[in-house]
Amino acid sequence: MQCTMQSFPLTVAAILRYAVTVHGDRTVTTATGDGGYRHATYREVGQQAGRLANALRRLGVQGDDRVATFMWNNQEHLEAYVAVPSMGAVLHTLNIRLFPEQIEFVAYEAEDQVVIADLSLTPILAPVLSRMETVHTVIAVGAGDLGPLEASGKRVLRYDEITAAESAEFEWPDIDENSAAAMCYTSGTTGHPKGVVYGHRSSYLHSMAVCSGNGMGLSFSDKAFPIVPMFHANAWGLPYAALMAGADIVLPDRYMDAESVVNLIETQRPTVAGAVPTIWNDVMNHLDRNPGHDISSLRLVACGGSAVPVSLMKTFEEKYGVQIRQLWGMTETSPMATLAWPAPNTPEDKVWEVRGTQGRPMCGVEARIVDDGGAVLPNDGEAVGELEVRGPWITGSYYRNTDESKFQSGWLRTGDVGRIDVQGYITLTDRAKDVIKSGGEWISSVELENHLIAHPAVREAAVVGVPDERWQERPLAAVVLQEGADVSPEELRNFLSDKVVRWWLPERWTFIDEIPRTSVGKYDKKTIRARHADDVYDVTHL
Amino acid sequence: MQCTMQSFPLTVAAILRYAVTVHGDRTVTTATGDGGYRHATYREVGQQAGRLANALRRLGVQGDDRVATFMWNNQEHLEAYVAVPSMGAVLHTLNIRLFPEQIEFVAYEAEDQVVIADLSLTPILAPVLSRMETVHTVIAVGAGDLGPLEASGKRVLRYDEITAAESAEFEWPDIDENSAAAMCYTSGTTGHPKGVVYGHRSSYLHSMAVCSGNGMGLSFSDKAFPIVPMFHANAWGLPYAALMAGADIVLPDRYMDAESVVNLIETQRPTVAGAVPTIWNDVMNHLDRNPGHDISSLRLVACGGSAVPVSLMKTFEEKYGVQIRQLWGMTETSPMATLAWPAPNTPEDKVWEVRGTQGRPMCGVEARIVDDGGAVLPNDGEAVGELEVRGPWITGSYYRNTDESKFQSGWLRTGDVGRIDVQGYITLTDRAKDVIKSGGEWISSVELENHLIAHPAVREAAVVGVPDERWQERPLAAVVLQEGADVSPEELRNFLSDKVVRWWLPERWTFIDEIPRTSVGKYDKKTIRARHADDVYDVTHL
Fold it and tell me: For A345-378, what is each residue's pLDDT tens digit?
């Protein structure tokens, strides 16, 4: 028996329609550098979106053509976020931090037709633009010379000019909620990046989850501040969620240094912000050096992308009255999947332990861990296996990719290894490919890193598995010291000795100037292992 | 182009699965009278749901068979809420306050096979049970004699016994999200009640909306207290939403008098409660007479079903530190459609005015007003027309009913009349059928009633349109005075004179002992008009 409910598609267009009518007077603020800001209302953003859609149609964008962006978080990027999917086309947010050959590859595979690009990013885009075969037009945003882009032979137009020439009215078409709205590529360290195609429905549901009390509880009393890039996993869904909630939005554009971020928080007073730990670490250091700033407008800071140090969360809470909530997700999970917030019955002395986990799934996401053979392991807080997730905003395949190895009977294999406790809290101990297998048992590189980084002399630490005759693999600790700090391997090993089991303690230590990173800033453990194998590192054996 | 996202149906079963795994240790508490309570965990409720589903299968419930409930808000009702839809059957929550012939009609039209009924409701159920043709079995909940029910000739079983005999494991089937999950009948004052059939998808999305920051912001830090009956518009979605959030749940069973409610709030400390204004009015009076109680655990009280007096909201906020948020909806809208909360830029002196409106739609609900000819009117806060709504949890038809008059090109005609301002705030001034048309202009009976009730001598007031030779219709004010109060029609008219335009002021006044109500407690204006026409009322003409 069918229900009698209306058939109402969950689409980005529906979010836009709602935002500009009920919340038309809410504002979108973009940093312009030097402490300046420009403002627009939702209504104006909606009108600009109409003009952009008309301009794109005039440029030949039809059906599900792909329109790429190569942009910072700013008003024009938000306009593209709503206009492109709402007109039925597919928004491809190019990650400006990919390597040039990766950018070339993903634009080609996605068949991007048009790229909307910030002129401030010309130095990155221009060198690769001529090789982006399918792209016929660049729409340039902001001030600056068009010459370097025009040198590619592509048509280059100014965003302001082509939108000014169009009507704000656009006949947004009816759209099937399962059709593509946007796409984003993973930043795989091995092989080509893989495309994830978000649907209208998945974006809508993900936004609802971000707005939920167990998510960020966004409401129209909020002002959202997505620092996490809109080209990286949808800025954790904050742009669409803010529009859905009718929350004000403040956008940092390219001004993401600690001073600019603190200035924005003080003057624009956002209530909810999202950024990776590195940003908050910089902010913490900046506030340390420049006391007297007030960041207390923030009721919630969402933090993820890499493990969030408990010490960072503690400092924010105790010194500045700002709550950092750790979340976990991937490009493949839209990305918000879990949030680390303690259940009300959590004993006082366990609160920080819980907040240091990856958190537990919000409704809509289901999680389980499986062993090497694919058998499901219990949620007992002890069994360790690969994390698998499923749900309406989790990918079930990759774009134009028939590789089934990342999926298992409808579940996404995350490539993360960890455990789940009876309350659903997930503790990730490693990437599956980074796990150290020593004498048949697993050693978590991530846990060792987290403990090492708590040592006052250590700025960063990466632990990788290296070949060992007796134990197959043993951990190598690659450590970056704080400026001017001096500490011996023996002391660090001793520091770890009451924190992990004895056989986890590394014998191999190397002190390096910086940890090699991937294009998106994650530890590049493949390179660390390779440099070790090539004898680049000066290794101390204890 | 299709998205790559997983196909994951939004079902009640998915909410249940999530609740019992991630939040299995959360509790469901049911009042047992005399200040006592019984408790169960989500996990136990889930196990009971499995047993109930097995028992229902054994009783022959297959496919989309309808299983009715005739129950208060208690643990067993919650078990039926999750078990029946999750097994693919359809939950029909019978409204115990319908007239006997209405109960008979709706059970027949819905083809209810089994009724799960509280034995405390035997006095209402027994007289009508034998005439409920399609029902073959009653499952009796609680203590008490089965005799009166058995006298109907139906099979009568005890809930505890049949569930105890079954396994807690049940193979929940895969379910299409658009299939029926539950149904509920409107309590139409004219003609037969009409059935609304909720889908799995609509229930899921509605729950997400209740959990959203603009809804009730439910999280697992909450304890939800639905006083509004689970047989009435799904207790405003609180049961499913609480399970989705992992919030504790406290249920009043049949103990909804003010003393019991206050006792429950003080001892169980719920954070979010939902009930009609009458309940909160009783609570306010009880607290007035019995000072010293603490209800401050409530961070939010949702209130709707009829217009919420601003004076009530003020008292709760100023005297008890409890925020009442007005919501509006109908059985047809699942029911939550709008919430009255001021936008952050609302001037101080407008806050209470805004809180006195019906509020504005949450994302997912679209609202508009149309004139008599169906033309859409502007959201300018002035134009008055019939409210129409659409969205994924709003009905597009009635069960087994081909009458299209309640729908217009995909929108539900609510039968409510009012205006919408530029921020989307809806002010309902009347039911379309209660609007008074005087000299070609509309007079709002509801506004007159709201002003009258603010007079200290007035306990209740109903205003209806009665025939008038010169003006076609004029308002008649039917007033119930406070005990011992005495006031003249002249004084009341004078009291209104600076609150509404002059030509709205009623000339006809009658003082009555009580206002006739429908089966669900709404003013029965049809009866008031009929009694006036039959000269039952003693009318003063000014």
Answer: 899 999 999 999 999 999 999 999 999 888 999 9
What's the DSSP call for residue A497?
T
Evaluate if residue A189 carries a pLDDT over 80.
no
pLDDT tens track for B483-499:
999 999 999 999 999 99
**Across all residues in chain A, what is the average pLDDT?**
95
A391 chain-B contacts, CB cut-off 8 A: 6, 8
Is residue A186 part of the annotated active site? The answer reads: yes
Whether A180 and B2 lie within 8 Å, measured CB to CB: yes
CATH number at residue B473: 3.30.300.30
Last-in-domain residue among B224, B255, B275: B275
| Distance (Å, whole) CA A10 – CA B364 | 8
* Pick from A3, A195, A393: CB nearest B197: A3
CB–CB contact A410 B218 (8 Å): no
Contact A4 B396 (CB under 8 A): yes
Domain boundary among B248, B275, B302: B275
The confidence score (pLDDT) of residue B280 equals: 95
Question: Would you state the pLDDT for residue A99?
Answer: 86
Active site residue B133: no
Who's near B39: CB < 8 A, 6+ residues apart?
B27, B28, B29, B30
Domain span at residue A452?
A: 436-541
Is B195 a member of any domain?
Answer: yes
Answer yes or no: do A181 and B209 touch at CB < 8 A. no
User: In terms of CA atoms, which chain B residue is nearest residue A14?
Assistant: B364
Angle, to 10 degrees, between the axis of helix A200-211 and the axis of helix A12-22?
50
In a domain, A228, yes or no: yes
Phi, psi values for residue A508, rounded to 5°: -105, 125
Q: What is the DSSP string of B378-431?
A: PSSS---EEEEEESTTSBSSBTTB---TTEETTEEEEEEEEEE-TT--EEEEEE
| pLDDT at B466 > cutoff 90 | yes
Total count of domains within chain B: 2
Residue A187 in any domain: the answer is yes
pLDDT per position as a tens digit, A50-93: 999 999 999 999 999 999 999 999 999 999 999 999 999 999 99
pLDDT, residue A185, reads 95
Please determine, for residue A519, whether its predicted confidence score (pLDDT) is greater than 80: no
* Predicted pLDDT of residue A471: 87
Closest-CA residue in chain A for B20?
A423
Minimal-distance CA residue of chain A relative to B196: A4
Contact B208 A213 (CB under 8 A): no
Task: Determine the average pLDDT of the residues in B289-301.
Answer: 96
Q: What CATH number did the domain enclosing A258 receive?
A: 3.40.50.12780
Q: Which residue of A has its CA nearest to B89?
A: A1
- Return the axis-axis angle of helices A42-58 and A75-86, rounded to nearest 10°: 60
Contact A5 B201 (CB under 8 A): yes
Which token pair is B98? 């319908």
Spatial CA neighbour of A326 closest among A311, A343, A309: A309
- Over residues B316-356, the pLDDT tens digits come to 999 999 999 999 999 999 999 999 999 988 999 999 999 99
Looking at residue B63, the DSSP 8-state letter turns out to be T
Minimal Cβ distance to A392: which of B8, B179, B424: B8
Residue bearing tokens 């976990």 = A328
Nearest to A399 among B4, B212, B424 (CB): B4
Residue B498 lies in a domain: yes
What is the pLDDT at residue A138?
98
Rounded to a whole number of angstroms, the distance from the CA of A212 to the nearest CA of chain B is 4
- pTM here? 0.91
Of A523 and B29, the one with more pLDDT:
B29
**Active site annotation includes B186:** yes
Of B15, B202, B422, the CB nearest to A363: B15
CA distance B302 to B323: 9
Residue in A234, A256, A241 with CA at minimum distance from that of residue A95 = A234
